[in-house]
Amino acid sequence: MxxxxxxxxxxLSNFVHDxxxxxxIRHLVDMGYSVDRIMEQLDYPTPRKRVEKTVYQYMMESGxxxxxxxxxxxxxxxxRLKNVSRPFISQRLREQIQKNGEDNAxxxxxxxxxxxxxQTEYLEQLSCLTGREKEYILGIPWHEDIxxxxxNDRMLEIGIELAVHSNLEVKFYFLISRDxxxx
Length: 183
Description:
This protein has helices spanning about 5-30, 35-40, 50-60, 85-100, 110-115, 120-125, 130-140, 155-165, and strands at about 65, 75-80, 105-110, 145-150, 170-175, 180. By secondary structure, it is an alpha+beta fold. Strands 1-4-3-5-6-2 form a 6-stranded mixed beta sheet. The longest helix is centred in the first third of the chain and has 24 residues, at about 5-30. The protein is globular, with a radius of gyration of 18 Å. The termini are far apart.
C-alpha cells in the first residue's frame, strides 16, 4: 500500500497542540519556567518531546535563544571581571542590561558543546547551580555547540552563579554598547 502524505493529520495535530497547550507553554517560557515546571503546569497531557520542541521553537522565534550574535565579536570591546564578588558582578551586569535593554543582552551558552564532549564534566560544571537553575539549563535542547541566551532574570541568576562559583569563563554580550564582559 502506498503511503500518503500526512499533511492534514500533521496540521490538525499542530492546531490541537497549539490550542491545548502551545499558548500556555509560550507564556510559561516567558516567565522563566523550566521544561519540567512547564510539564507540571499544563492541564492538557502533552508528551515531553513535544513540550521541549515547542519551548525551543518559541525561544528561537522570540530571540530568547539565538545561535549567532548579530554583531561580530571583533567589533566589540572586552572587559574582564574575574575573582570579584557576586554583588560587584551583579551590579555591573545589571547596569549593562539597563543601558542596553534586556533584548540586547545575552550570555554565551556553550552547553551543547559540553554535553557532546564530556557529559560528566558538564554536570560537574553545573554543580554550583541550584536544582531549579540546573533543571532550566538541562531542559533546553542545545542544538548548536554554542548558543546565546537572552540575559533575562533567570539567565542572569545562572550566569552570576557560574561566574562566581565555577572555573568557567562566562561571557556576557551587550549589543547596543558593543561590550563583552568576561567573568
